[in-house]
Design a protein that fits this description.
11% strand, alpha/beta, 5-stranded parallel sheet, globular, Rossmann fold
Length: 209
């Protein structure tokens, strides 16, 4: 059986990152989120010749995947309170990393337009996790230790950032479009644990696990 990839898009506070992490753990594969951005940022700071040398070295030593395992894991919650500003060069590095991951190992990838970058591949399953605002508020207050007002602002800012990011790099598509994904799950109704079970069952139906 070959490599497979599960991509996740999620509303802030919906529990999407937790579901992705749990799924990866149960499947015994790696979960990548902001380590992709960390590596892409490092690579984008190199001049073209130096990047080619680093790129060849990384590929000869097992690809971007093995290299990223040495990078620090992301915090549980990363909020985007700044306005989205495009960085096409940085995105191209992220795209290259995501494509390399899909070709070299089974993994879970959170965010980064991974569903769009890997669209059309038979070994990719794309998931969107969302939940009602009250549920997201409660989770954000608990996980971040902030007031209801701060939680609400964080959710609004972060989801706006993600929507703008997705629209820019997919040339006008919208982040919550259900046809972008194999499956959209309401984490409040289904529950975090059951979301993991449903996705695993789907992977079995697809013959990927």
């Amino acid at each position: 059986m070959g490599n497979y990839v599960v991509t996740f898009a999620r509303g802030f506070g919906s529990g999407g990152k937790e579901i992705a992490s749990r799924l990866a753990k149960e499947l015994g594969i790696h979960c990548y989120e902001n380590r992709i951005l960390t590596l892409a940022s490092q690579l984008s700071g190199l001049n073209e010749q130096l990047f080619k040398e680093v790129n060849e070295k990384i590929r000869s030593n097992g690809g971007f995947a093995s290299f990223m395992r040495g990078l620090p894991r992301a915090r549980h919650y990363i909020a985007r309170n700044e306005k989205f500003v495009s960085d096409d060069s940085l995105f191209q590095y992220q795209k290259q990393i995501i494509e390399n991951l899909a070709e070299t190992e089974s993994c879970v990838i959170v965010g980064k337009c991974a569903d769009w970058i890997l669209r059309g591949r038979e070994n990719v399953v794309s998931i969107y996790i969302e939940a009602p605002r009250a549920f997201c508020l409660e989770r954000t207050i608990k996980n971040m230790g902030v007031t209801k007002e701060v939680a609400a602002a964080t959710i609004a800012h972060t989801d706006k950032y993600r929507a703008d990011y997705y629209a820019h790099y997919t040339h006008g598509n919208y982040w919550t479009n259900p046809v972008n994904y194999d499956m959209t799950l309401n984490s409040e109704r289904v529950g975090v644990e059951n979301c993991v079970k449903v996705i695993k069952n789907y992977l079995q139906i697809k013959g990927l696990i």
